[in-house]
Design goal:
The structure holds 2 protein chains of 2 kinds. Chain A is an alpha/beta fold. Chain A has 3 domains: 174 residues, Glycogen Phosphorylase B (Rossmann fold); 165 residues, Glycogen Phosphorylase B (Rossmann fold, 3-Layer(aba) Sandwich), CATH 3.40.50.2000; 135 residues, no CATH class. Chain A has 19 helices and 15 strands. In chain A, the strands form 3 sheets. A 7-stranded mixed sheet of chain A has the order 9-8-7-10-11-12-13, with helices on both faces. In chain A, helix 1 links the parallel strand 1 and strand 2. The relative contact order of chain A is 0.09. Chain B is an all-alpha fold. Chain B has one domain. Helices cover 63% and strands 0% of the residues of chain B. Chain B has 3 helices and no strands. In chain B, helix 1 runs antiparallel to helix 3. The two termini of chain B are 22 Å apart. Classes of the chains: A alpha/beta, B mainly alpha. Chains A and B meet through helix 1, helix 2, helix 3 and helix 4 of A and helix 1 and helix 3 of B.
Chain lengths: 499, 60
C-alpha cells in the first residue's frame, strides 16, 4: 500500500501531523508512507522515522520558469506549466492507494485532483470533475464548516488530522523516541544542571512578547528559580538573546539561539524541566517529547486548536501580552516548576487525549461550541443565553421552510427561475440574520457545508439532496422553535442544556 | 516573486481559461484546465496578504 500525506503549511502543522503519521504506520506496518511538504519547512520531517520519503514541492523551479526575462509572458506560462506538469506526472506515477490532504487549501485540493488515479482513496479536500471543491469524509466537512477565522471549533488540530486520516491516536504516537542526541557542543553549553527552555519568538511578531517584556521576564525569572534558562530561537532572534544575557547577571542564561537545528530540540526539550513558549514549533515538539509547557497565548491564537499537548502543560490566555505583568509570568513558571495548584485563569492540559480544563466565562463562545458538539457528536443542545438567539432560530426556521418550499417546487418543475431567485434571496437573508445573531453560525455553517458536499449530479438529484439537508435542518431548528424552550436566567452557564 | 509578476501571470491564466471556456462548456473541465487552476492558486499563495500561517487560519 502506498500513502501520500499533503502537509503544505508551516512547521507547527507538520509537527502536529507526526502523531497521525505514526498512527498510520501502526495501522499499515508495511505501507510506503510519503509526505509532501514545502521545501522551506522540510526540516520538520527530520526524525520522523515512520516516513519512507519526504517530497518537496518544487515551487522555485516552477516560479523561475514563470519569470524568465528573455521570453514572452505566454511562453513563460508555458514553461512554468511544463515544470509543474513534470512534477505532477512524477507523483501520478507513484499510483498512490491513498492520498490524505491535511493542508485544506484551494491549491492542495487541485493538487490532489491532478495526481489521484481512479483507484485512489482520497481523504480531505480534492476537486470534482467540474473543478468545484470536493470534500471527502465527515471529518473534512467538519473542518471546512467549523475551523478557521471567526469559527468556534475547539478540537485540537492533532486530533482533527487523525480524524481526517481515519486513525485513532494512542500514547505511543506522542511519546515515540526520536533517535537523536544533543550535539556535544550544545551539551557543553547546557552542562549537567537542571534547566528550562525559553523560546523567544513566534512565527509572527504579533504572537510574541516585546523585547522589553522578555528582558523583564528573564531578569526576574533568573532570580526566582534555581534552574538554568536555555534560550532557543532562530538566527533572527540572536540580538534579543544577547540583550537578555547582558541584562541577567552571572551565567544563568545560556543562549542556543541560532545554534540548533529543529531535530536538536527534541533531546534538548526532552531533558528540560519545562518549555516556556508562544504559538510556534517548539510547543509542538514539546508535545512530542512530553515536556510540560507554559504557553502564552494572545487573541491572535486559537489555543484550543494549536496549544500544547504534553501532560502538565498550562496555558495563560490573554488578549494582549503587554497587559500581562512580568511578575505574573514568572510566578506562573515558578508555580509549574514547584507543582503548585494553578490559578483559576490558567488552562490546564491533563494529557494529550483530554480536553483542556478551563472555566468558560463567555456565554456566546460556550453556546457556539456546545452547539457544535450537539450537531456533530450528538450531545445535548445548549440552552440559549439570550432571547435573540431563540428569535434568530425562529427566523432561520421560517427561511428554511421557504427554501424547502422552493426546492420542492423545482422538483415538481414549477417555474424554475422564480424559485431560484427566491432561493438566492433566502441565502442573502440568512447572511444578514447571521450578522445580527452570530450564534446561529455553527448550524448555518453545517448545512451550507453539507450542500457543498453534493457533487456534480443531475439537477433533480441535487435538488432532492438539498431537500434532505433542509429537512434535517428543520429538525435541528425545531429544538429551539418549540414551546418548551425558555432561558434559565440564573442557571450556571456551564450547565444549561436542552434535552 | 513580486506582486506585479504574480498579478500578470494570474491575468494570463484567466485569459487562457476564458479562451478555453467554450471547450469547458461542451467537454467539461480537462486535466489541463485543472492544472491551470492549480497554478493560479499556487501563485495566489505567494501574495503577501494571503494567510498561510497555519492550517486553521486558512482562507478558503
Amino acid at each position: 500500500m502506498k500513502i501520500l500525506i499533503l502537509q503544505l503549511t508551516r512547521l507547527g502543522d507538520i509537527f502536529s501531523t507526526w502523531p497521525t503519521v505514526r498512527a498510520l504506520r501502526r495501522q499499515y506496518p508495511s505501507a510506503k508512507i510519503h509526505m509532501l511538504v514545502r521545501p522551506r519547512f522540510a526540516s520538520a520531517c527530520e526524525g520522523l522515522s515512520d516516513l519512507d520519503q519526504v517530497i518537496e514541492m518544487p515551487m522555485m523551479n516552477v516560479f523561475r520558469a514563470l519569470l524568465k526575462n528573455d521570453m514572452s509572458d505566454k511562453d513563460c506560462l508555458k514553461a512554468g506549466m511544463e515544470e509543474l506538469n513534470d512534477f505532477l506526472m512524477d507523483l501520478q506515477e507513484e499510483n498512490y492507494d491513498e492520498i490524505i490532504n491535511l493542508s485544506f487549501s484551494p491549491s492542495s485540493s487541485f493538487l490532489v485532483k491532478c495526481i489521484e488515479s481512479n483507484d485512489t482513496k482520497v481523504k480531505g479536500y480534492s476537486r470534482h470533475e467540474d473543478a468545484f471543491l470536493r470534500i471527502d469524509g465527515d471529518p473534512s466537512a467538519y473542518f471546512y464548516a467549523q475551523t478557521g477565522v471567526r469559527k468556534y471549533n475547539r478540537f485540537h488540530v492533532n486530533d482533527l488530522f487523525a480524524e481526517v486520516a481515519g486513525v485513532e491516536l494512542q500514547q505511543e504516537d506522542y511519546t515515540k523516541e526520536v533517535a537523536h542526541q544533543i550535539p556535544p557542543l550544545v551539551r557543553e553549553y547546557i552542562g549537567d544542571e537542571e534547566y528550562i527552555v525559553v523560546h523567544l519568538a513566534a512565527s509572527t511578531t504579533r504572537k510574541s512578547l516585546s523585547q522589553e517584556k522578555w528582558m523583564n521576564v528573564m531578569r526576574r525569572l533568573s532570580q526566582q528559580i534555581d534552574h538554568k534558562i536555555v534560550l532557543i530561537g532562530a538566527e533572527i532572534d540572536q540580538e534579543i538573546a544577547k540583550n537578555i544575557q547582558l541584562t541577567v547577571r552571572g551565567n544563568k542564561v545560556i543562549s542556543l539561539v541560532g545554534k540548533t537545528k529543529l531535530l536538536d530540540l527534541f533531546p534538548i526539550l526532552k531533558d528540560s524541566s519545562l518549555l516556556v513558549g508562544l504559538d510556534s514549533a517548539p510547543i509542538h515538539i514539546a508535545s512530542l517529547t512530553g515536556t510540560p509547557t507554559y504557553n502564552l497565548s494572545n487573541s491572535y491564537v486559537r489555543f484550543w486548536e494549536t496549544g500544547p499537548k504534553a501532560t502538565g502543560s498550562r496555558i495563560r490566555g490573554i488578549g494582549n501580552f503587554e497587559a500581562l505583568g512580568s511578575d505574573v509570568i514568572c510566578n506562573d513558571i515558578q508555580s509549574m516548576l514547584e507543582n503548585d495548584i494553578p490559578s483559576d485563569e490558567m488552562i490546564l492540559v491533563k494529557d494529550p487525549f483530554s480536553e483542556y480544563e478551563y472555566v468558560e466565562n463567555n456565554p456566546h463562545q460556550l453556546f457556539c461550541w456546545n452547539m457544535i458538539r450537539a450537531i456533530y457528536l450528538g450531545e445535548d443542545f445548549p440552552v440559549p443565553y439570550r432571547m435573540e438567539t431563540i428569535e434568530g432560530f425562529k427566523q432561520l426556521q421560517e427561511l428554511n421552510a421557504i427554501s424547502l418550499q422552493q426546492l420542492t417546487a423545482i422538483l415538481r418543475k414549477e417555474q424554475n427561475e422564480e424559485n431560484e431567485r427566491v432561493l438566492q434571496n433566502v441565502d442573502q437573508l440568512v447572511d444578514k440574520l447571521l450578522m445580527m445573531v452570530p450564534e446561529l453560525a455553527p448550524v448555518v455553517d453545517w448545512y451550507q457545508t453539507e450542500k457543498l458536499r453534493i457533487g456534480p449530479l443531475e439537477k433533480k438529484q441535487i435538488v432532492a439532496s438539498y431537500c434532505a439537508i433542509h429537512e434535517t435542518l428543520a429538525k435541528i431548528l425545531s429544538v429551539y422553535t418549540g414551546d418548551n424552550v425558555h432561558i434559565e436566567e440564573n442557571a450556571n452557564v456551564n450547565e444549561r442544556t436542552i434535552r | 516573486m513580486n506582486q506585479d509578476a504574480i498579478n500578470k501571470m494570474e491575468r494570463l491564466i484567466d485569459l487562457t481559461l476564458k479562451t478555453a471556456r467554450e471547450q469547458i462548456l461542451t467537454s467539461g473541465v480537462s486535466s489541463e484546465v485543472q492544472k491551470l487552476l492549480l497554478m493560479k492558486e499556487l501563485l495566489k499563495e505567494q501574495l503577501p496578504n494571503e494567510n498561510t500561517d497555519s492550517t486553521t487560519n486558512k482562507t478558503r
